[in-house]
Structures are given as structure tokens and as C-alpha cells.
Write a structure and sequence with these properties.
2 domains, alpha+beta, 9 strands, 5 helices, five-stranded antiparallel β-sheet
């Protein structure tokens, strides 16, 4: 059973542990290793979700939601995302950085393979080689810049380049008489979704910072 522990305070003295089974069934929540009983419960985690009361009068809500085509558990404490949970802005920014890092690593790896193992030159004719390695380094730089600066603009630039690159790739494959599989299309959609959500999260943090200039 998957288990994930979050901490509600910086001192990490308030652990909140979530457990669930396949397809998010049998969802349970515990606070400081003590099981919590929902004070309000929907039909399931996806339909209505659950609401729990914490000591001190705070409330935790848990609900399975779909965002940008992807499902995730939304955990809120008094209406605010739990630190470290999937819907927290900082976590979304981290996910966007990991997605761009994955693109960078794969691009460099494919380029290196094309240069060293493709004796027929087929991959090189498709543009896989030094251009792919350069592309990977570009996404690495953009990803780190966007992550470290929490820059929505850089995430959007990376997203635009991803879409443009994959359109060019599909055109090149079509001209070569090949076509991309469903698996590749799905992976690209997921990567774009993570980067898009990271950009939105960075915008949210920028708005919060502008609204609280003294913090």
C-alpha cells in the first residue's frame, strides 16, 4: 500500500501520513501516527472526498481531482495545500523541473547513441545527434533556471519549445515514412502537463509575493 508522509510545520513535529490502495481505494489519513476518522465523507475519494478534524480546530480535506488531464490527491489544511503534496505550488515547480530534466537526459542519451552506434546514419538524417545533445543542454538550462528562479516565463518558454520540437519531430518522422506510437504521444503529453502546471504554480507564487511585499 503506497504511503506518503507530509509535515505541517517546518520543525517536522506534525506528520500527516496518507495511505491508499490501487486506484486510490481504501484511503486513510493519520496525524502523528494516530488514525483520523472523517467528520465528513463523500462516496469515495474521487466523489466528494473526505474531511478530517485535527487537534486545535484545524481541518484537513482530501479529494482525488483531475488537473490538466492528470489525476492527483489534493490535500488541504484549512483550504491551503499541504506542504509537499502534489497540489502545493513548490511541489508543482519541482515536478516541472524534473520533467525538463528527463527531457534533457533523454535528448543527450539519444544524441550520444546516434553518434556512436548508428553506423548507417539513419538517426543522424532525422536530426538525432549533435542537435539533439544541444537541445538537451538547452532544456537542462531552462529547467534549472525556471526552478531556481521560480520563473513562470521560463517554464512557458520551455513548454513552447517542447511543443515546437515535437511537432518538428512528427513531421520528420512522417517524411521518413515512420510514425510515432501512442506511448510516445502520451509521455509527451504528461511532460507538457507537468511543465504547464509548474508555470501556473510559479505565477501563483508571484501573485502571492506581489500581494505580500513585506514577507
Amino acid at each position: 500500500m503506497p504511503t506518503k508522509t507530509y509535515y505541517l510545520d517546518e520543525a517536522r513535529t506534525e506528520p500527516l501520513t496518507a495511505r491508499w490502495g490501487w486506484f486510490y481505494r481504501n484511503f486513510t489519513l493519520s496525524y502523528r501516527d494516530q488514525p483520523l476518522t472523517p467528520v465528513e465523507a463523500g462516496v469515495s475519494l474521487a466523489q466528494g472526498g473526505y474531511r478530517y478534524e485535527l487537534p486545535g480546530g484545524r481541518y484537513v480535506s482530501a479529494q482525488l481531482k483531475r488537473n490538466t488531464g492528470l489525476q492527483e490527491v489534493e490535500l488541504l489544511v484549512d483550504g491551503q495545500p499541504v506542504p509537499g503534496s502534489n497540489t502545493h505550488p513548490l511541489e508543482r515547480i519541482k515536478q516541472g523541473w524534473y520533467a525538463l530534466l528527463l527531457v534533457a537526459v533523454l535528448s543527450v542519451a539519444f544524441g550520444a547513441v546516434a553518434l556512436t552506434l548508428d553506423s548507417s546514419g539513419t538517426l543522424v538524417t532525422l536530426g538525432i545527434g549533435w542537435p539533439t545533445i544541444a537541445e538537451g543542454m538547452l532544456f537542462l538550462a531552462l529547467g534549472w533556471w525556471a526552478f531556481s528562479r521560480r520563473s513562470a516565463l521560463v517554464f512557458y518558454v520551455a513548454l513552447g519549445l517542447l511543443v515546437l520540437d515535437w511537432v518538428v519531430t512528427l513531421v520528420s518522422l512522417a517524411e521518413a515514412g515512420a510514425r510515432g506510437g501512442f506511448g510516445g504521444i502520451f509521455i509527451r503529453f504528461v511532460i507538457c502537463a507537468f511543465v504547464y502546471r509548474a508555470a501556473r504554480a510559479a505565477q501563483e507564487l508571484q501573485r502571492e509575493s506581489a500581494a505580500s511585499p513585506g514577507l
